[in-house]
Design goal:
globular, alpha+beta, six-stranded antiparallel β-sheet, 364 residues, 34% helix
Length: 364
Amino acid sequence: MRRPPLRVLDAGGSPEAIGDAHGRAHAAEIKAYTADRVALVASGVWIGRRLGPADVLDIAHSMIPAHESFDGDLHAEMLAMAAAAGISPAEAVVVGGFTDFIDTVRAAAGSTLVRAATEDDCTAVLVPDGRAGGAGFLAQTWDMHASATDHVLLLRVRPDGAPAARVFTTTGCLGQIGMNSEGLCVGINNLAGADGRPGVTWPSVVRAMLKCSTAAEALGVLLAADLAGAHNYLILDRRGAGFSVEAMPSVRPVTALGDEPLVHTNHTLDAAAEVVQAERDSRLTRSSHARLTTAAELLAAGPIDAERLFDLTREPTAICVTATAPFHLESSGAAVMRPRTGDFWACWGRPAENEYQRIEASDG
C-alpha cells in the first residue's frame, strides 16, 4: 500500500506548546484512534476477557501519577496534547502506551491469557561501528495492527532545556523510536510481560531517554523507571556505545553491544526476563524466532551500510510483514538511524512497498 511521503510535524518550546501543537494538528485523528484502542482493550481480544470501557479507563487513570512523577515535563506535554485533541488524560495513556497498557490491564484483570493476540512486533538491530565503516546504526521495522499504519507520524521536537529530536511515532503518542541532536538513538521491540503494573508506559520512557547525551545516561533512565509493561529497548550513541535491554517491570537484563550486530525481535533471550514473559500465540512466537534468525543471517558478514539495512527491512519471507488474519499485523513503518553522522531515514508503511525518506533535523 503506497501513499504520499511520511507526515512530519514540527513543534518546539514548552512541554505545553509541543503537546498543544501535536493535539491541534491531529485532533480528529487522535480521537478516532483513541476510541479504537479503548474498544480493543474492552473487547477482551488482547487480555483474555471482556472489560467495560469505564473499567479500562479506570485502570489508565490509576497510571497517571506514575507518569507525572517519572517526568513532569513529558506528563505536561501529554496532558496538553490530550486537551487539544479533546480526549481525557486516561485516554492519552491508552492511545500512547497501548502495548504496555495491555500488560497492566492483564495483571489488573487477573488474566495470563495473551495467546489470542498481541501487537507491536518489530525487528530491530544494533550495528557496531566496526561493521559499518566506523559509524554504526540502529535500525528497525515497526510492526503493528494494520489499523495503526495510517496514524504513523514523524515528530521533530525542540523542547526547552533538552536536545532536539526526530521521533517516529503515531498520532497521540509522545514517541516510539528516535534520535536526538546529541547523537543518541533509542528503538524498541514489544515483549509480552506477565508482571505488568500501574507504572509509566514506554513512549514516556523513550522520550525521557532522548533527553540524554550518552547511551550510559539513557540506560540509567531506563533502569530507574517504574515501568508499566515489557519492552526491549535498544540504545546507541555517536561514540558507538550501545545496549539492548529486555526491560520488564520486575527485571531488566542488559546486553552491551560488542563487535557484532545485536538483533532482537519479540521474545526474550535472557533467562531472567523469560521467567516473567507471558505466553504468546505459537504462530507469533514462530514469527519472532524466524525474524530473529533471518535478520542475523542477513547481517552475518561483510560491511553494513544504510542500503543493506533498508533491504533487511524489506526482506519478504519473514521481516517485512503483511497483514493477514487472525492478527492483522503489518510492518507499519521503519527507521534507520546513524548517530555518528546524524543521518535519519524513515519509511511509512511496508518498506517493501514504500521508499525511505531522509529526515533532516529541524532548523530550530
